[in-house]
Amino acid sequence: MSSMLWIGTRKGLFALRADGARRSWKLAGPQFLGHIIHHVVQDPREPRTLLMAAKTGHLGPTVFRSGDRGRSWREAAQPPAFRKALEGEEARAVQRVFWLTPGHRNETGTWYAGSSPAGLFRSSDGGERWEPVAGFNDNPMRPKWAAFPTPDGEFLHSILVDPRDARHLYIAISIGGVFESTDAGASWTPLNEGIAADFLPDPNVPFGHDPHCVVQHPAKPDRLYQQNHCGLYRLDRPERRWQRIGTAMPKKIGDIGFPIVVHPSDPDTAWVLPMDGQTVWPRTSIGGKPAVYATRDGGASWRRLDRGLPRSQAWFTVLRQAMCADAHERAGLYFGTTAGEVWASTNGGGNWRCLARHLPEIYSVSHAA
Amino acid sequence: MLMSCTVRIASPLRSYTAGAATLSLGGETLAEVLSALEQRCPGIRFRMIDEHDRIRPHMRLFVNNDEARELAATVRDGDTVHVICALSGG
Asked: How far apart (Å, rounded) are the C-alpha atoms in residues B44 and A79?
């Protein structure tokens, strides 16, 4: 199985291609130099197809589609956009297409996109034309669910499609919380019990939380993990109350960060990359010593994995879309930093090496088979 | 009489105009000129104008030397419409 990583950066798109053993990697690009690339995602139903969320500093947000594994790209004829505002309504405009998720395997051509400000969009034709998901965007509760934008805006991300049921969806909003739909997006319910919100006056609110990244295990879709602004959590549906699994992390490390990644086949194995969440929120590797932490027991315990990573004075940040795993049983793990480095491990985090340096600020790293 | 103006396209948008820096287009308002531009170069309008017909924050449109804040601005025969990208910083 060959491996490829798509690297979305603040200044363009790059790719890393590996041989079958994942030993030798070659950097290609940039494509779209100067464009802001938020997310690049392969279609598992049609692996030659990729979608990319992009904009530039000047130009509005859009989606590009490739049908030839990224050799050529064509812009969507109708990018994600909110419907025209009615009189008296807030006229929201998509500032960024931030997140892309392929639809259910039985719904060929269906894709979902999340935007900033928080909006949900669906395409039924492989990303060519996008329509707003009215059940969320026009939901009378939406202005309350997403009432506090982060300093960088408000993001709708972590769009999850239950592999057993195309109508069962989860989304996450920073800031807003996690929401669930069982009717293909027509209606939504908050799903935030047990999540801390220590930045709010009332920590027991039903929404208003800050999920940074939510993942669903592909082989056990009732298992969800969440890296939140306020800790690490696990939820085993049909339970509705998240359990804080970050309490098992070393106290001096804490359980703050952006991405969380699950093993392709083992639902008890997950990896995080803790960031400094103290005082003014530096959001850099803790003490300048970056480390990945892994659990093999669903979050009951965590193990530090830093062999090969810088030992000191490495103050980077790893954003929520910038860490991923490949599909090998001996999982390859990859992350990209805000300092433009791509790091890889081909043994589940046991050893790390740097695959690329000096790239622009990395926003996303995604694996393509 | 068919109204015609020159539209000067900023470099970030020339991927839509096959590299052309100027186009000759018809229209009596900025909205009509942009509609003609979209017909000629599909996809270009949404990169400049949002879904509520507002000029995007880092775009500026001028009719001759006057900045147009609304798409209802009048365009006359022989005018030049400047599409300018305005952004600073790294």
From this structure: 11
- Phi, psi for residue B48 in degrees, rounded to 5: -105, -30
Complex confidence, ipTM: 0.89
**B56, A60: Cβ pair inside 8 Å?**
yes
Distance of residue B69 Cα from the nearest chain A Cα, in angstroms: 16
Distances (CA, A) of A21 to A227, A332, A356, A368, B37: 31, 11, 18, 15, 50
How far apart are alpha carbons A335 and A85 in whole angstroms?
40
pLDDT tens-digit profile, chain A (369 residues):
678 999 999 999 999 999 888 999 999 999 999 999 999 999 999 999 999 999 999 999 999 999 999 999 999 999 999 999 999 999 999 999 999 999 999 999 999 999 999 999 999 999 999 999 999 999 999 999 998 877 778 899 999 999 999 999 999 999 999 999 999 999 999 999 999 998 888 888 999 999 999 999 999 999 999 999 999 999 999 999 999 999 999 999 999 999 999 999 999 999 999 999 988 889 999 999 999 999 999 999 999 999 999 999 999 999 999 999 999 888 999 999 999 999 999 999 999 999 999 999 999 999 998
A181 CA to chain B: closest CA distance, Å? 26
- Collect all residues of chain B within an 8 Å Cβ-Cβ radius of residue A60: 46-50, 56
Contact check, Cβ <8 Å, A59/B52:
no
Domains and CATH numbers, chain A: 48-318 (2.130.10.10)
Question: Which pTM value belongs to this model?
Answer: 0.95
- Whether the CB of B84 is below 8 Å from some CB of chain A: the reply is no
Topology of the domain covering B5-85:
Ubiquitin-like (UB roll) (3.10.20)
Give the H or E element holding residue A257.
Answer: strand A257-262
- How many pairs of residues across A and B have Cβ atoms under 8 Å apart? 48
